[in-house]
Structure prediction request, 392 residues.
Amino acid sequence: MDARFTAEQDEIRRTLRELLHKRCGPEELRAAVDTPAGHDPALWTALAEQLGLPGLALPEGYGGAGCSVTELALACEETGRALAPSPLLATAVLTAPLLLALGTDAQRADLLPRIASGALTAALAVPGPALATALGLTGHDPSGEWAGGGRAGGVQARQADGGWRLYGQVDQVLDGHSARLLVVAAHTGGFARSRVLLFLVRGDAAGLTRVRQTALDATRAQARLQLRHVEAGLLGRGGDDVLAALARLGDTAAACLAAEAVGAAGRVLERTVEYVGQREQFGRPIGSFQAVKHRLADVYVQVQAARSAAYYAAWATAQGERVGGLALAQALQALRGAAAEGIQSHGGIGVTWEHDVHLYFKRAAGDELLFGPVHRLRAHTADLAHVFEEAG
Prediction:
Protein backbone atom coordinates (compact mmCIF):
# COMPACT_ATOMS: atom_id res chain seq x y z
CA MET A 1 0.00 0.00 0.00
CA ASP A 2 1.31 3.44 -0.99
CA ALA A 3 0.05 5.82 1.71
CA ARG A 4 0.81 8.93 -0.33
CA PHE A 5 -2.02 10.74 -2.08
CA THR A 6 -1.75 11.47 -5.76
CA ALA A 7 -1.76 14.99 -7.15
CA GLU A 8 -5.30 14.42 -8.40
CA GLN A 9 -6.49 13.32 -4.96
CA ASP A 10 -4.89 16.34 -3.31
CA GLU A 11 -6.55 18.58 -5.87
CA ILE A 12 -9.97 17.07 -5.16
CA ARG A 13 -9.55 17.80 -1.45
CA ARG A 14 -8.22 21.32 -1.96
CA THR A 15 -10.85 22.40 -4.47
CA LEU A 16 -13.72 20.95 -2.48
CA ARG A 17 -12.51 22.52 0.75
CA GLU A 18 -12.26 25.93 -0.89
CA LEU A 19 -15.73 25.66 -2.40
CA LEU A 20 -17.33 24.56 0.87
CA HIS A 21 -15.51 27.32 2.76
CA LYS A 22 -17.12 29.87 0.46
CA ARG A 23 -20.54 28.30 0.09
CA CYS A 24 -21.18 26.36 3.32
CA GLY A 25 -20.19 28.48 6.29
CA PRO A 26 -22.12 28.43 9.59
CA GLU A 27 -24.82 30.83 8.37
CA GLU A 28 -25.30 29.03 5.05
CA LEU A 29 -25.42 25.69 6.87
CA ARG A 30 -28.20 26.76 9.21
CA ALA A 31 -30.16 28.33 6.37
CA ALA A 32 -29.86 25.15 4.29
CA VAL A 33 -31.13 22.76 6.98
CA ASP A 34 -34.21 24.95 7.47
CA THR A 35 -35.26 24.67 3.83
CA PRO A 36 -37.87 22.09 2.76
CA ALA A 37 -35.18 20.08 0.97
CA GLY A 38 -32.83 20.12 3.95
CA HIS A 39 -29.92 21.22 1.76
CA ASP A 40 -28.97 24.00 -0.65
CA PRO A 41 -29.86 22.91 -4.21
CA ALA A 42 -27.58 25.61 -5.62
CA LEU A 43 -24.62 24.20 -3.70
CA TRP A 44 -25.44 20.68 -4.93
CA THR A 45 -25.51 21.99 -8.48
CA ALA A 46 -22.12 23.60 -7.98
CA LEU A 47 -20.68 20.41 -6.52
CA ALA A 48 -21.98 18.47 -9.50
CA GLU A 49 -21.08 20.89 -12.29
CA GLN A 50 -17.74 22.18 -11.01
CA LEU A 51 -16.38 19.07 -9.29
CA GLY A 52 -18.44 16.18 -10.68
CA LEU A 53 -18.96 14.97 -7.11
CA PRO A 54 -22.06 12.77 -7.67
CA GLY A 55 -20.28 10.75 -10.34
CA LEU A 56 -16.85 10.67 -8.74
CA ALA A 57 -16.85 6.86 -8.29
CA LEU A 58 -19.00 6.02 -11.33
CA PRO A 59 -17.48 4.66 -14.57
CA GLU A 60 -16.66 7.14 -17.31
CA GLY A 61 -19.03 5.28 -19.63
CA TYR A 62 -21.93 6.55 -17.52
CA GLY A 63 -20.67 10.11 -17.28
CA GLY A 64 -18.68 9.60 -14.09
CA ALA A 65 -15.06 10.35 -13.28
CA GLY A 66 -14.05 6.71 -12.99
CA CYS A 67 -12.34 7.22 -9.63
CA SER A 68 -12.13 4.72 -6.78
CA VAL A 69 -13.72 4.61 -3.33
CA THR A 70 -10.64 6.41 -2.00
CA GLU A 71 -11.48 9.59 -3.92
CA LEU A 72 -15.11 9.38 -2.81
CA ALA A 73 -14.00 8.94 0.80
CA LEU A 74 -11.71 11.98 0.54
CA ALA A 75 -14.65 14.00 -0.76
CA CYS A 76 -16.75 12.79 2.16
CA GLU A 77 -14.00 13.86 4.56
CA GLU A 78 -14.27 17.41 3.26
CA THR A 79 -18.08 17.49 3.40
CA GLY A 80 -17.79 16.12 6.94
CA ARG A 81 -15.49 18.98 7.94
CA ALA A 82 -18.18 21.45 6.95
CA LEU A 83 -21.10 19.25 8.07
CA ALA A 84 -22.38 20.09 4.61
CA PRO A 85 -25.98 18.93 4.14
CA SER A 86 -26.21 17.47 0.64
CA PRO A 87 -27.54 14.41 -1.23
CA LEU A 88 -23.98 13.04 -1.54
CA LEU A 89 -24.33 10.28 1.06
CA ALA A 90 -27.79 9.10 0.03
CA THR A 91 -27.20 9.40 -3.73
CA ALA A 92 -23.53 8.69 -4.46
CA VAL A 93 -22.58 6.48 -1.50
CA LEU A 94 -25.70 4.44 -0.70
CA THR A 95 -27.73 4.27 -3.92
CA ALA A 96 -25.57 4.68 -7.03
CA PRO A 97 -23.39 1.62 -6.23
CA LEU A 98 -26.50 -0.56 -6.02
CA LEU A 99 -27.74 0.69 -9.39
CA LEU A 100 -24.32 -0.02 -10.87
CA ALA A 101 -24.06 -3.49 -9.32
CA LEU A 102 -27.61 -4.78 -9.82
CA GLY A 103 -29.23 -2.69 -12.54
CA THR A 104 -29.91 -3.94 -16.02
CA ASP A 105 -28.07 -2.34 -18.93
CA ALA A 106 -31.12 -0.23 -19.69
CA GLN A 107 -31.50 0.89 -16.06
CA ARG A 108 -27.84 1.84 -15.80
CA ALA A 109 -27.90 3.74 -19.08
CA ASP A 110 -31.01 5.62 -18.00
CA LEU A 111 -30.21 6.43 -14.37
CA LEU A 112 -26.46 6.62 -13.82
CA PRO A 113 -25.67 9.46 -16.27
CA ARG A 114 -28.37 11.56 -14.64
CA ILE A 115 -26.98 10.79 -11.18
CA ALA A 116 -23.46 11.64 -12.35
CA SER A 117 -24.64 15.00 -13.66
CA GLY A 118 -26.40 15.84 -10.41
CA ALA A 119 -29.80 16.06 -12.12
CA LEU A 120 -31.12 12.96 -10.36
CA THR A 121 -30.93 12.46 -6.61
CA ALA A 122 -31.70 9.07 -5.08
CA ALA A 123 -32.29 7.47 -1.69
CA LEU A 124 -32.13 3.95 -0.26
CA ALA A 125 -35.24 2.99 1.72
CA VAL A 126 -34.71 0.14 4.19
CA PRO A 127 -37.71 -0.68 6.44
CA GLY A 128 -37.44 -0.09 10.14
CA PRO A 129 -34.38 1.04 12.08
CA ALA A 130 -32.40 -1.67 10.33
CA LEU A 131 -30.11 0.15 7.93
CA ALA A 132 -26.96 -1.00 9.73
CA THR A 133 -28.20 -4.61 9.71
CA ALA A 134 -29.20 -4.48 6.05
CA LEU A 135 -25.74 -3.19 5.16
CA GLY A 136 -24.09 -5.95 7.17
CA LEU A 137 -22.42 -3.54 9.60
CA THR A 138 -23.86 -4.67 12.92
CA GLY A 139 -25.10 -8.19 12.17
CA HIS A 140 -25.87 -10.78 9.55
CA ASP A 141 -29.46 -11.70 8.68
CA PRO A 142 -29.49 -14.23 5.82
CA SER A 143 -33.29 -14.36 5.86
CA GLY A 144 -33.74 -10.63 5.33
CA GLU A 145 -36.32 -10.42 8.11
CA TRP A 146 -35.36 -6.77 8.62
CA ALA A 147 -37.38 -5.98 5.47
CA GLY A 148 -40.63 -6.70 7.33
CA GLY A 149 -43.83 -7.74 5.61
CA GLY A 150 -46.17 -5.00 4.49
CA ARG A 151 -49.10 -4.43 6.83
CA ALA A 152 -47.26 -6.20 9.66
CA GLY A 153 -44.38 -3.75 9.25
CA GLY A 154 -41.88 -2.99 6.52
CA VAL A 155 -42.75 -3.27 2.83
CA GLN A 156 -44.39 -6.06 0.86
CA ALA A 157 -44.14 -6.36 -2.93
CA ARG A 158 -46.63 -8.19 -5.12
CA GLN A 159 -47.10 -8.55 -8.83
CA ALA A 160 -50.17 -6.92 -10.32
CA ASP A 161 -51.21 -5.78 -13.80
CA GLY A 162 -47.95 -6.95 -15.32
CA GLY A 163 -45.85 -4.97 -12.88
CA TRP A 164 -45.10 -4.61 -9.18
CA ARG A 165 -46.94 -2.85 -6.38
CA LEU A 166 -45.47 -1.93 -2.99
CA TYR A 167 -47.35 -1.59 0.28
CA GLY A 168 -45.90 -0.62 3.63
CA GLN A 169 -43.94 1.99 5.50
CA VAL A 170 -40.29 2.96 5.78
CA ASP A 171 -38.90 5.26 8.45
CA GLN A 172 -35.57 7.08 8.71
CA VAL A 173 -34.86 7.33 4.98
CA LEU A 174 -31.96 9.70 4.35
CA ASP A 175 -33.14 12.40 1.91
CA GLY A 176 -36.30 10.36 1.37
CA HIS A 177 -38.49 13.45 1.29
CA SER A 178 -36.62 15.13 -1.56
CA ALA A 179 -34.96 12.37 -3.63
CA ARG A 180 -36.38 12.00 -7.12
CA LEU A 181 -35.69 8.26 -7.16
CA LEU A 182 -36.17 5.76 -4.35
CA VAL A 183 -34.60 2.32 -4.14
CA VAL A 184 -36.90 0.40 -1.81
CA ALA A 185 -36.12 -2.95 -0.17
CA ALA A 186 -39.23 -5.12 0.04
CA HIS A 187 -40.31 -8.69 0.79
CA THR A 188 -41.89 -10.69 -2.00
CA GLY A 189 -42.98 -14.28 -2.59
CA GLY A 190 -45.22 -14.83 0.42
CA PHE A 191 -44.23 -16.06 3.86
CA ALA A 192 -42.95 -19.52 2.95
CA ARG A 193 -40.75 -18.47 0.03
CA SER A 194 -40.20 -14.82 0.83
CA ARG A 195 -37.03 -13.01 -0.19
CA VAL A 196 -35.81 -9.46 -0.37
CA LEU A 197 -35.67 -7.59 -3.66
CA LEU A 198 -34.97 -3.97 -4.52
CA PHE A 199 -37.45 -1.82 -6.40
CA LEU A 200 -37.27 1.53 -8.17
CA VAL A 201 -39.94 4.07 -7.22
CA ARG A 202 -40.35 7.55 -8.65
CA GLY A 203 -40.44 10.31 -6.08
CA ASP A 204 -43.77 11.53 -7.45
CA ALA A 205 -45.41 8.10 -7.75
CA ALA A 206 -49.12 7.84 -7.00
CA GLY A 207 -49.84 6.40 -3.55
CA LEU A 208 -46.48 7.52 -2.13
CA THR A 209 -46.53 9.86 0.87
CA ARG A 210 -43.27 11.40 2.04
CA VAL A 211 -42.93 13.39 5.27
CA ARG A 212 -39.71 14.92 6.53
CA GLN A 213 -38.99 13.92 10.11
CA THR A 214 -37.39 15.89 12.91
CA ALA A 215 -33.99 14.30 13.42
CA LEU A 216 -31.38 14.63 16.15
CA ASP A 217 -28.85 15.65 13.49
CA ALA A 218 -30.51 18.36 11.44
CA THR A 219 -27.72 18.18 8.84
CA ARG A 220 -28.89 14.65 7.91
CA ALA A 221 -32.41 15.08 6.60
CA GLN A 222 -34.63 12.02 7.10
CA ALA A 223 -38.14 11.13 6.02
CA ARG A 224 -40.93 8.65 6.60
CA LEU A 225 -42.32 6.98 3.49
CA GLN A 226 -45.79 5.46 3.26
CA LEU A 227 -46.46 3.31 0.23
CA ARG A 228 -50.04 2.41 -0.64
CA HIS A 229 -50.04 0.09 -3.66
CA VAL A 230 -47.32 2.17 -5.28
CA GLU A 231 -46.22 1.21 -8.77
CA ALA A 232 -42.57 0.11 -8.82
CA GLY A 233 -39.99 -1.39 -11.15
CA LEU A 234 -37.75 -4.27 -10.18
CA LEU A 235 -34.07 -3.34 -9.92
CA GLY A 236 -32.17 -5.86 -12.01
CA ARG A 237 -33.72 -9.11 -13.18
CA GLY A 238 -34.72 -10.63 -9.85
CA GLY A 239 -32.07 -13.35 -9.75
CA ASP A 240 -29.41 -11.27 -8.01
CA ASP A 241 -28.30 -11.85 -4.44
CA VAL A 242 -29.59 -8.62 -2.98
CA LEU A 243 -28.40 -9.33 0.56
CA ALA A 244 -24.84 -9.94 -0.62
CA ALA A 245 -24.93 -6.74 -2.69
CA LEU A 246 -26.09 -4.76 0.35
CA ALA A 247 -23.30 -6.24 2.46
CA ARG A 248 -20.70 -5.23 -0.14
CA LEU A 249 -22.22 -1.77 -0.23
CA GLY A 250 -22.09 -1.61 3.55
CA ASP A 251 -18.33 -1.95 3.68
CA THR A 252 -17.84 0.77 1.07
CA ALA A 253 -20.36 3.05 2.76
CA ALA A 254 -18.67 2.50 6.13
CA ALA A 255 -15.32 3.61 4.71
CA CYS A 256 -16.89 6.80 3.35
CA LEU A 257 -18.76 7.43 6.60
CA ALA A 258 -15.56 6.91 8.56
CA ALA A 259 -13.77 9.49 6.44
CA GLU A 260 -16.69 11.87 6.86
CA ALA A 261 -16.63 11.44 10.66
CA VAL A 262 -12.86 11.99 10.70
CA GLY A 263 -13.29 15.21 8.75
CA ALA A 264 -15.85 16.44 11.29
CA ALA A 265 -13.66 15.38 14.23
CA GLY A 266 -10.63 17.14 12.80
CA ARG A 267 -12.57 20.33 12.24
CA VAL A 268 -14.15 20.51 15.70
CA LEU A 269 -10.71 19.87 17.22
CA GLU A 270 -9.25 22.74 15.16
CA ARG A 271 -12.00 25.07 16.36
CA THR A 272 -11.49 24.00 19.96
CA VAL A 273 -7.72 24.59 19.83
CA GLU A 274 -8.35 28.02 18.33
CA TYR A 275 -10.87 28.88 21.06
CA VAL A 276 -8.74 27.79 24.04
CA GLY A 277 -6.00 30.06 22.71
CA GLN A 278 -8.40 33.01 23.03
CA ARG A 279 -10.46 32.26 26.15
CA GLU A 280 -8.77 33.52 29.31
CA GLN A 281 -8.98 32.55 32.94
CA PHE A 282 -6.78 33.92 35.75
CA GLY A 283 -5.26 36.32 33.24
CA ARG A 284 -3.99 33.74 30.75
CA PRO A 285 -5.40 31.65 27.86
CA ILE A 286 -6.83 28.36 29.11
CA GLY A 287 -4.93 26.65 26.30
CA SER A 288 -1.73 27.36 28.22
CA PHE A 289 -2.82 25.13 31.11
CA GLN A 290 -1.15 21.75 31.05
CA ALA A 291 -4.38 19.87 31.83
CA VAL A 292 -6.09 21.39 28.77
CA LYS A 293 -3.08 20.60 26.59
CA HIS A 294 -3.11 16.97 27.68
CA ARG A 295 -6.83 16.53 27.05
CA LEU A 296 -6.62 18.00 23.56
CA ALA A 297 -3.47 16.02 22.81
CA ASP A 298 -5.38 12.83 23.62
CA VAL A 299 -8.14 13.89 21.23
CA TYR A 300 -5.57 14.65 18.54
CA VAL A 301 -4.10 11.14 18.83
CA GLN A 302 -7.58 9.60 18.57
CA VAL A 303 -8.45 11.65 15.49
CA GLN A 304 -5.18 10.85 13.73
CA ALA A 305 -5.54 7.14 14.44
CA ALA A 306 -9.11 7.21 13.15
CA ARG A 307 -7.99 9.07 10.02
CA SER A 308 -5.39 6.39 9.26
CA ALA A 309 -8.01 3.67 9.75
CA ALA A 310 -10.47 5.45 7.46
CA TYR A 311 -7.90 5.89 4.70
CA TYR A 312 -6.88 2.26 4.95
CA ALA A 313 -10.51 1.10 4.84
CA ALA A 314 -11.14 3.12 1.67
CA TRP A 315 -8.07 1.60 0.02
CA ALA A 316 -8.84 -1.92 1.28
CA THR A 317 -12.29 -2.08 -0.34
CA ALA A 318 -10.63 -2.56 -3.72
CA GLN A 319 -8.56 -5.40 -2.25
CA GLY A 320 -11.57 -7.32 -0.97
CA GLU A 321 -10.89 -6.64 2.72
CA ARG A 322 -13.90 -5.90 4.92
CA VAL A 323 -12.59 -3.43 7.46
CA GLY A 324 -15.00 -0.56 6.90
CA GLY A 325 -17.08 -1.31 9.97
CA LEU A 326 -14.08 -1.26 12.28
CA ALA A 327 -12.84 2.00 10.77
CA LEU A 328 -16.30 3.51 11.18
CA ALA A 329 -16.40 2.49 14.85
CA GLN A 330 -13.05 4.16 15.49
CA ALA A 331 -14.03 7.29 13.59
CA LEU A 332 -17.38 7.69 15.36
CA GLN A 333 -15.69 7.29 18.74
CA ALA A 334 -13.10 9.90 17.77
CA LEU A 335 -15.81 12.31 16.62
CA ARG A 336 -17.84 11.83 19.77
CA GLY A 337 -14.75 12.42 21.92
CA ALA A 338 -13.62 15.47 19.96
CA ALA A 339 -17.10 17.02 20.03
CA ALA A 340 -17.56 16.35 23.74
CA GLU A 341 -14.16 17.87 24.52
CA GLY A 342 -15.05 20.82 22.31
CA ILE A 343 -18.25 21.47 24.24
CA GLN A 344 -16.38 21.17 27.56
CA SER A 345 -13.57 23.50 26.48
CA HIS A 346 -15.97 26.11 25.14
CA GLY A 347 -17.60 26.39 28.54
CA GLY A 348 -21.07 27.93 28.73
CA ILE A 349 -21.11 28.99 25.08
CA GLY A 350 -20.55 25.39 24.06
CA VAL A 351 -24.04 24.38 25.16
CA THR A 352 -25.87 27.25 23.45
CA TRP A 353 -27.97 26.79 20.33
CA GLU A 354 -26.22 29.70 18.63
CA HIS A 355 -22.78 28.07 18.67
CA ASP A 356 -21.93 25.36 16.15
CA VAL A 357 -19.98 22.95 18.33
CA HIS A 358 -23.11 21.04 19.37
CA LEU A 359 -23.79 20.19 15.73
CA TYR A 360 -20.69 18.01 15.67
CA PHE A 361 -21.80 16.11 18.75
CA LYS A 362 -25.22 15.56 17.19
CA ARG A 363 -23.57 14.28 14.00
CA ALA A 364 -21.69 11.66 16.06
CA ALA A 365 -24.81 10.65 18.00
CA GLY A 366 -26.99 10.61 14.89
CA ASP A 367 -24.57 8.45 12.94
CA GLU A 368 -24.38 5.98 15.79
CA LEU A 369 -28.17 5.70 15.78
CA LEU A 370 -28.22 5.08 12.02
CA PHE A 371 -25.08 3.02 11.44
CA GLY A 372 -23.91 1.82 14.86
CA PRO A 373 -23.56 1.88 17.77
CA VAL A 374 -19.80 1.65 18.14
CA HIS A 375 -19.78 -1.45 20.33
CA ARG A 376 -21.98 -3.36 17.88
CA LEU A 377 -19.82 -2.35 14.92
CA ARG A 378 -16.79 -3.74 16.72
CA ALA A 379 -18.58 -6.86 17.93
CA HIS A 380 -19.73 -7.75 14.42
CA THR A 381 -16.24 -7.20 13.03
CA ALA A 382 -14.89 -9.51 15.71
CA ASP A 383 -17.48 -12.14 14.79
CA LEU A 384 -16.52 -11.95 11.12
CA ALA A 385 -12.86 -12.41 12.07
CA HIS A 386 -13.70 -15.28 14.48
CA VAL A 387 -11.76 -13.44 17.18
CA PHE A 388 -13.50 -15.07 20.12
CA GLU A 389 -13.91 -18.56 18.72
CA GLU A 390 -11.91 -21.31 20.34
CA ALA A 391 -9.30 -22.98 18.18
CA GLY A 392 -10.43 -26.38 16.92
Summary: Strands lie at 122-125, 155-160, 163-174, 181-188, 195-202, 208-213, 222-234, 280-281, 284-285. The chain is about 50% helix and 15% strand.
